[in-house]
Write a structure and sequence with these properties.
The chain folds into three domains: 190 residues, Rossmann fold (3-Layer(aba) Sandwich), CATH 3.40.50; 57 residues, SH3 type barrels; 87 residues, Elongation Factor Tu (Ef-tu), domain 3. The protein is 25% helix and 28% strand. It contains nine helices and 17 strands. The chain is globular.
């Protein structure tokens, strides 16, 4: 196969490309330039896709003996991922930019361009597994190394794009194994630190980035009774479940910490309350992407499901309360705390991804008198 290997400049994508070459594919490397902001182009970048990373990607391609190109996708990245990030926060929701990058850039723009150029598939360094069924269709599964599993942020891609994707690191036992393999192959990125934080927020200050882009919008922080307990410079800078950085002038009557319960952009208001008020056991979501036709039709099913609402969150046992082509609702068997609109919700059957959708709301069913239940943060 002709394979386009996405080289981020990190160790994972370099080893993935090396494995694709070793498998006998005709591989070409490409680095995606996603920003024209010079502040991001610096030594020790906290995110990915900096000018430093482009150089590391080129050196990896040289070691592997494959052609290498840099594609400027910065305009598309700004129009989709960054614009969505700003719009979601402005609307009082909590987006996951890595999910949107996979949706709009890596498995839309990049893959579509690759197919137009005659490539058969795109190869990336994501930790996830693709399983081919007997009928030729494809399933997305968690990686062997659950600590590095990235199926959560990949689920948005959908089955058609999955069929054109290769994840050579899905069966790797650990990140240490990847680093050892990189060193053995002579790849200089073998000891390069992992990227973290939001790649387009150069200094890691998300609130500062939002303030610079959206402007200061002073407003009130109120408790559930409507009493003003503090002020803020922009409701968009807060997210449901947040505890730190509230700077409230009035303590809670019981002295316990306060958390953000809701962000109300229309009134430019942040509502705070107790941790107990964050607990939910039903989650509703839209913009569904399905890998299971039976689940999408709402057909009854046997067997346990689980859901995940954060990239590094633990899966929680759940049942599909409603499902159609566009929407889904889940009933959680174990309540969660601090589920925010805008988060990605992924449904699993064991290690297999059943579907993905974007959270619109969450609620708690009133507990019978005298009952008690544990929650996960």
């Amino acid at each position: 196969m002709r394979v386009l290997a996405a080289l981020s400049g990190g160790v994972d994508s370099a080893v993935a490309a090396a494995r694709a070459v070793e498998a006998g594919h005709d591989v070409v490397g490409v680095h995606m330039a996603l920003s024209r902001t010079r502040d991001q182009f610096r030594t020790g970048s906290r995110g990915c896709c900096s000018i430093e990373d482009a150089g590391d990607a080129r050196r990896a391609a040289d070691v592997l003996g494959i052609p290498y190109y840099v594609w400027d996708l910065s305009e598309r990245f700004e129009e989709t991922v960054v614009a969505d990030f700003l719009a979601e926060y402005a609307a009082g929701r909590t987006p996951n930019p890595c999910v949107r990058c996979n949706e709009h850039i890596k498995f839309a723009t990049l893959l579509d361009k690759a197919l137009a150029l005659g490539f058969d598939a795109v190869c990336t360094g994501h930790y996830a597994r693709v399983v081919t069924r007997p009928d030729g269709s494809h399933e997305l599964h968690r990686a062997r190394d659950l600590a590095k599993d990235q199926s959560y942020v990949l689920a948005v891609m959908g089955p058609e794009r999955l069929a054109r994707s290769i994840f050579p690191l899905g069966d790797v036992a650990s990140k240490d194994e990847t680093r050892r393999e990189a060193a053995a192959r002579g790849l200089s990125v073998s000891a390069k630190p992992d990227s973290y934080d939001i790649c387009f927020v150069a200094d890691g200050d998300t609130q500062g980035f939002l303030r610079d882009r959206l402007g200061a919008r002073p407003g009130e922080v109120v408790d559930t009774s409507g009493a003003v307990v503090g002020t803020h410079d922009g409701a968009y800078a807060y997210t449901v479940g947040q505890r730190r950085g509230l700077a409230l002038g009035r303590p809670a009557p019981d002295g316990r910490p306060r958390y953000v319960l809701a962000v109300e952009p229309v009134h430019n208001r942040v509502v705070v309350g107790s941790a107990d008020e964050l607990v939910v056991d039903h989650v509703h979501a839209d913009r569904a992407v399905w890998y299971d036709d039976a689940a999408a039709s709402g057909a009854p099913r046997e067997g346990a499901l689980s859901v995940q609402v954060r990239a590094h969150g633990a899966p929680v046992p759940a049942a599909l309360a409603h499902a159609d082509a566009q929407r889904l609702s889940v009933a959680l068997h174990e309540p969660l705390r601090g589920v925010a609109a805008g988060q990605s919700l992924v449904v699993y059957d064991g290690t297999r991804v059943v579907g993905q959708a974007t959270v619109t709301s969450a609620e708690r069913t009133p507990a019978p008198a005298g009952s008690a239940a544990g929650t996960r943060a």
